[in-house]
Task: structure prediction
Amino acid sequence: MAFNTHNLLLFFFKLLLFCSLLPFSLSQSVAEAPSPAADSCNGIFLSYAYSSGTKLKPTDPSHQPYRFESVLTVLNNGDEKLKSWRVSVGFQHDEYLVSASNAVLADGTSLPANVGNGTVFAGYPMSDLDTAIDTAGDLTQMQVQVKLVGTQFGVAAPNVPLPETIQLANDGFVCPKPSLQGKSEMQVCCTKDPKFKANVTVDDEFLPRQSGDLTIMYDVTRTYDSNYWAQVTISNHNPLGRLDNWKLSFDWMRDEFIYSMKGAYPYVVDSTDCIFGPQGTYYGELDFANVLNCERRPTIIDLPPTKANDTTLGLIPKCCRNGTILPTTMDPSKSSSVFQMQVFKMPPDLNRSELSPPQNWQINGTLNPDYKCGPPVRVSPSQNPDPSGLPSNTTVVASWQVVCNITQPKGGSPKCCVSFSSYYNDSVVPCRTCACGCPSNTANTCSTKAQAVLLPPEALLVPFENRTALMKAWADLKHITVPNPMPCGDNCGVSINWHLYTDYSRGWSARVTIFNWDETAFPDWFAAVQMDKATPGFQKMYSFNGSTLELNGVNNTIFMQGLPGLNYIVAETDGANPQKDPRVPGKQQTVVSFTKKNTPGINVAAGDGFPTKVFFNGEECSLPTALPMNNSNRMGSTTVLSILLAVLVFMLMQQQ
Result:
């Protein structure tokens, strides 16, 4: 019995010894080995592999949802580090992406998000991929795998919802058409483009700074083990772009929170998420009553000018302007905005060198263009003038750049519109029906499809809801059939009337009137018109400051703003008798003169005297679909016939 017990113990000892000698990698989380096809790629290898999917509720044969799980792999098999990798995935099945590991959406959209028209992924937190040469083939530094989970529509098993294509979105690479590996995976090898030449040379450690309509710099100025100070600089580079009452938002990815700020403030001051979250547990001795914001996605707003010299919140150059950022063409000193914030970190990032910027940046304003922002890209540290006044620069600890460009969102509507009128026609071509959108509950009160009805000039001075009687009376006078129901209004906060004023042999003129139908005034406003043929003949504006502006090498834009001290359009106000008088819009007006000397062959009345694009405060306005009808040719023929008839009558009288 003792012998059997001894043998049994010896057996278990050998079994334990055998298990301990098994490969260590079996119990470790390591990078998955790349596909065999990657061995033949000497560039950037991409693959998209569909893993699994299940049918989801509700049951809808015409638009059935299915869960999908896929893996996007990016592997650097080249001889240079791939910095800030970005991959375009051509989703085509109305996909709704719920989560993505090791990546964010490059356009700044937070997940979950609709990606059915395709999207671009950017690496986070691992944005750079090293080479096999520099890492001795360490896949954890060469490769990233993005696990995707979402919902797609209409593709049931055994079919596989693969994207249309996958491509490397970094500059300087070419990608052939992806190849299919079976039914559930597509692969492509992207190589350097021999024709590509970078127009900027910088130290190899960082990517060059990029240009865009608007850039945001995230500069870490001071860093400690548990927190750091960051300076955020928003700069406008578009000559026709601007922001009013800007609101900036982003996502904290590692449980950070904002402790204090200077030069700006959170839209919501709330430390609740910290108190009841992991931050409250770790920072047990911290008084969270002094914490400004613990939201995962905070919204930041600018301070009013009265706080510019506040010792607690202000004293930051270029802060505290009510969120107004002007174009450089208007005032370079007001084309940027700056604020600072103190950010507290959480484990395991409690090291002064562990710095991670927030992701998914978005910025917008009131009656301003829409911007799409890319991911933060690590760039060379910024240098700022020494605060002591010494003739030297101070280098920050680390810098990231976010590039934002003006875009027109799908289904979006303008926020301003234009009407046309002229000296040769007494009817005004109004703003388009629903030019700035229409409410969904119009019922039968108005038509969203009917064409806008011509107006008498005086109708431009009253709100749309007070124009009905004027429109119908004018239609009766002009024998115009009006639709039933009447067309809906333009619903724009700002409208601009361009009136062709005069036209003579050596020159011509126009009158511009800007109406503010909103309850918000517009200080430091500007407008611009693009005229394909008339701009070289621009001479003068009499009540505005006006100048020509060259955009993208083309001199076809006229920029205008109010005169000093008068650059302010008031909000809409009540009439003299609010019980019966309509509300009165804020209004400014000028006459613009042109010469024909520099524009031979220009036909002002035929359309050359009307703008092809109009902007107000950076927002492109909706234009009418037609020009005022010109009856001059018909009137001219009638005049000739009258003269001939008079001559004939005179000759007959002479013969008698």
Notes: The helical segments are 2-20, 132-135, 139-142, 272-275, 278-282, 468-478, 604-608, 632-655. Residues 632-655 form the longest helix (24 residues). The first strand starts at residue 44 and ends at 55.
